[in-house]
């Protein structure tokens, strides 16, 4: 397929690996790069890219899987939604297995709740339009890539005059927690592999403070294996040269200014708010809430939710994994009580989660 | 996060398009795009929305840089 | 009154049951008016050793491109028998039908069961039909059991893989699972992908005739896909198997759906494919023979038994990396973000 196969070419990948090896040959220390996006994490595991990296280069996985950073309290609300008679919860497939405090959507479905997997939030709008007797609640999770699609769906529902389409919103934004991680003295991050598709929306400027104020090189990198190796090589070159800039490796899809129209639609429907991140805690200004004008589409405002008292799981070190402080193998629960079949923390739940990827591909 | 795939646009009707990858077709909304999208263009589709139009010149440029990098001395 | 509906009374054992059996099920399945009237089928089998298997089918949707729950129920059981090296002979048919199900659809299902049985050369010799109240089953469930005989040769087992053996897959992977998933509402994907649902005993016969004892293991990678089945073989045989990602045959459209939904074709179900572990000296010739067969034309050598011990599977990725392959955990869900 065009725009995929070219960047999965074996010779190209091997060549880039050799280039990277040469680039860091004279470098004495270790460079630690954090990929903040779960799809990068998946790509690195799936193609076995770690084995192609020189010894001086270490990759760690950050908080870039929306399912992983969604706290129990959100899941408990989603579960409360699907327990209301006449409510259908529509969601991306990833959310089904995520444990809340004492249940999960999959468990609720087994007990009779109507939980449906959709590919697009527009499918949920269609579901609401064709079933006026039901209340359809879409679970709005995701970063700046996904938030505009939810905003667009709310606009579509308003245009169609639907009174039975709601969103339970827990969107998060990316650069804010990256700054929090960059300023954490316990974490020695040499640079960021910046997310590919988030950046199609927010553009390159959003990372300027990281490069300028925190002296962390940033490279917006595509998801194909050759993209990842080239992105890492661009980061390594900056480190070797002692520079700190924002560069775009994934220039076929990401423009410096991003996608202004998608951002405008996002801003029309959502306003920044404080948000709780699993493992990272409350980060001011890192979330998106549905604006007052669109309150009639907000599940939290419109539905009588009575979630249980939320607790985060004990012993789970998802937070440290998300921060890149430890690898999954360092967590005492990993492979013991926490497995993809019976996940404790959300990093094991999503196939993109650091722990699930490590379990599946990394041993 | 943010799984998106490059798909080729096969029909356009206002902001509604149909896009294809490897013979698989799916509706894709163009409402998030500023640029004009024509049949034959490639877009990144995420959750049923085109979020970015792919730039062929940039794609070829990236490939050229990748190839140039490792040609002579690196592989020696 | 709508005479297309299956009613609770059709499972009561009384007159309605008899009418459903004699009007619809028996004519379709056996074609002989007398069969199915006694409490058990009486069979003659000239073999000292038989294979016996059972499987239940609950697929949703029940009609999908390339087959339906009926053809799947026959082929699945035929294949389970073929994978141990037995010649499939007889199949049973247990139907659990939800009240209100359509007679027309039931007729289509049992007709395709008969067609699948004829194609595979097996007979459906006994069965049972129950009707449960609405909501107690999802439209229709089918259980089939099957008996096969060992005419010649020894039973095959997943524990027989040996160092140096080659691993062959009989065609493109993931077709069934993706055809079924794409047909489900909610995802709205338009594809031409057909399920690979087929009986493999004909192909297996040819493979056994040619390779004999060199054929060490046969398995059909159904739920859990190729990854899970290969891992099972590695564990059972206590060997490490290495797979070559570049050699894996994947239909482009299956790859496309997998890209869109974030799935890995290695974990997607197949219903008409087999994995063979074969001695290295016999591998190339067997591969050529498999490619002559209509159900094996895309066969490929995808890996080998690299080391004795441990029960691991490793994949050489298409770009030259290495990753380990584990069993599927839970169900594979479409992901997006």
Automatic annotation (TrEMBL), chain A:
Family that this chain belongs to: Belongs to the HypD family.
Coiled-coil intervals: none
Domain of life: Bacteria
Alphabetized InterPro entries for the sequence: Hyd_form_HypD, HypD_1, HypD_2_sf
GO molecular function ontology, one term from the record: carbon monoxide binding
Keyword list, A-Z: Iron, Metal-binding
GO biological process: protein maturation
One Pfam family from the record: HypD
Entry-linked PANTHER family: HYDROGENASE MATURATION FACTOR HYPD, HYDROGENASE PROTEIN ASSEMBLY PROTEIN HYPD
UniProt-recorded name of the protein: Hydrogenase formation protein HypD
Membrane spanning stretches: none
From TrEMBL, chain B:
Entries under InterPro entries matching the protein: Hydgase_assmbl_chp_CS, Hydrogenase_HupF/HypC
Any one GO BP annotation for this protein: protein maturation
GO MF terms, alphabetically ordered: carbon dioxide binding; iron ion binding
One Pfam entry name: HupF_HypC
Gene3D superfamilies linked to this entry: 2.30.30.140
NCBIfam families hit by this protein: hypC_hupF
Family listed: Belongs to the HupF/HypC family.
Protein name in the entry: HypC/HybG/HupF family hydrogenase formation chaperone
Automatic annotation (TrEMBL), chain C:
Domain PurM-like N-terminal: 38-149
Pfam short name (any one): AIRS
Domain named PurM-like C-terminal: residues: 164-315
InterPro entries: HypE, PurM-like_C_dom, PurM-like_C_sf, PurM-like_N, PurM-like_N_sf
SUPFAM superfamilies: PurM C-terminal domain-like, PurM N-terminal domain-like
Stated family: Belongs to the HypE family.
Name of the featured protein: Hydrogenase expression/formation protein HypE
């Amino acid at each position: 397929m065009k725009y995929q196969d070219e960047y999965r070419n074996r010779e190209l990948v091997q060549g880039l690996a050799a280039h990277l090896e040469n680039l860091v040959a004279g470098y004495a220390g270790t460079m630690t790069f954090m990929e903040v996006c779960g799809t990068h994490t998946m790509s690195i595991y799936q193609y076995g890219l770690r084995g192609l990296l020189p010894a001086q280069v270490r990759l760690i996985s950050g908080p870039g899987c929306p399912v992983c950073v969604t706290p129990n309290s959100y899941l408990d609300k989603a579960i409360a939604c699907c327990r209301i008679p006449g409510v259908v919860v529509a969601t991306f497939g990833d959310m089904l297995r995520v444990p809340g405090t004492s249940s999960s959507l999959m468990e609720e479905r087994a007990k009779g709740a109507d939980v449906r997997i959709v590919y697009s939030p527009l499918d949920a709008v269609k579901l609401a339009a064709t079933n006026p007797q039901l209340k359809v609640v879409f679970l709005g999770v995701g970063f700046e890539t996904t938030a505009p699609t939810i905003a667009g769906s709310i606009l579509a529902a308003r245009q169609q005059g639907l009174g039975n389409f709601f969103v339970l919103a827990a969107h998060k934004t990316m650069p804010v927690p990256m700054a929090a991680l960059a300023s954490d003295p316990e974490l020695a991050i040499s640079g960021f592999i910046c997310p590919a598709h988030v950046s199609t929306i927010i553009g390159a400027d959003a990372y300027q403070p990281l490069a300028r104020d925190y002296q962390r090189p940033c490279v917006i990198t595509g998801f194909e294996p050759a993209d990842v190796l080239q992105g890492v090589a661009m980061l390594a070159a900056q480190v070797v040269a002692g520079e700190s800039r924002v560069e775009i490796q994934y220039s076929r899809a990401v423009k410096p200014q991003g996608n202004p129209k998608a951002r405008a639609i996002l801003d029309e429907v959502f306003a920044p708010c404080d948000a709780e991140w699993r493992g990272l805690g409350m980060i001011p200004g890192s979330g998106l809430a549905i604006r007052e004008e669109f309150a009639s589409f907000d599940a939290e405002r419109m539905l009588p939710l009575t979630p249980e008292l939320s607790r985060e799981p004990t012993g789970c070190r998802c937070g440290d994994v998300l921060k890149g402080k430890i690898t999954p193998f360092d967590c005492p629960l990993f492979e013991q009580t926490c497995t993809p079949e019976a996940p404790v923390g959300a990093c094991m739940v999503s196939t993109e989660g650091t722990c699930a990827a490590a379990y599946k591909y990394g041993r | 996060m943010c799984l998106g795939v490059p798909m080729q646009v096969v029909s356009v009707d206002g902001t509604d398009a149909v896009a294809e990858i490897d013979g698989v077709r799916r509706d894709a909304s163009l409402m998030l795009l500023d640029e004009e999208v024509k049949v034959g263009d490639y877009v990144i589709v995420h959750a049923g929305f085109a979020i970015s139009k792919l730039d062929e010149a940039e794609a070829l440029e990236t490939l050229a840089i990748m190839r140039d990098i490792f040609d002579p001395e690196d592989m020696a | 009154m709508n005479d297309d509906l299956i009613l609770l009374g059709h499972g009561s054992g009384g007159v309605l049951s008899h009418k459903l059996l004699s009007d619809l099920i028996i004519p379709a399945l056996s074609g002989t008016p007398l069969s199915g009237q006694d409490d058990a089928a009486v069979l003659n089998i000239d073999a000292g050793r038989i294979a016996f298997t059972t499987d239940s089918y609950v697929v949703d949707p029940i009609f999908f491109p390339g087959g339906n729950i009926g053809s799947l129920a026959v082929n699945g059981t035929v294949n389970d028998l073929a994978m141990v090296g037995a010649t499939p002979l007889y199949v049973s048919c247990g139907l659990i039908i939800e009240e209100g199900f359509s007679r027309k659809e039931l007729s289509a299902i049992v007709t395709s069961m008969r067609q699948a049985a004829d194609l595979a050369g097996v007979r459906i010799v006994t069965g049972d039909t129950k009707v449960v109240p609405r909501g107690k089953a999802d439209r229709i469930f089918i259980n089939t059991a099957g008996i096969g005989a060992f005419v010649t040769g020894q039973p095959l087992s997943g524990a027989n893989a040996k160092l140096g053996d080659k691993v062959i897959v009989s065609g493109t992977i993931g077709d069934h699972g993706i055809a079924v998933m794409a047909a489900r509402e909610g995802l709205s994907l338009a594809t031409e992908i057909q399920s690979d649902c087929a009986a493999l005993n004909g192909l297996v016969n040819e493979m056994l005739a040619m390779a004999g004892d060199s054929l060490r293991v046969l398995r059909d990678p159904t739920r859990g896909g190729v990854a899970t089945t290969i891992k099972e073989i590695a564990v059972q045989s206590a060997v490490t198997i290495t797979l070559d990602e570049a050699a894996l045959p994947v239909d482009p459209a299956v790859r496309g759906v997998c890209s869109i939904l974030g799935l890995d074709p290695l974990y997607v179900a197949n219903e008409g494919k087999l994995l063979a572990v074969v001695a290295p000296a016999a591998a190339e010739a067997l591969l050529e023979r498999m490619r002559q067969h209509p159900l094996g034309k895309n066969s490929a050598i995808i890996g080998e038994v690299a080391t004795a011990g441990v029960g691991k599977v490793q994949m050489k990725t298409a770009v030259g990396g290495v990753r380990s392959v584990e069993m599927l955990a839970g169900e594979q869900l479409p992901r997006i973000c």
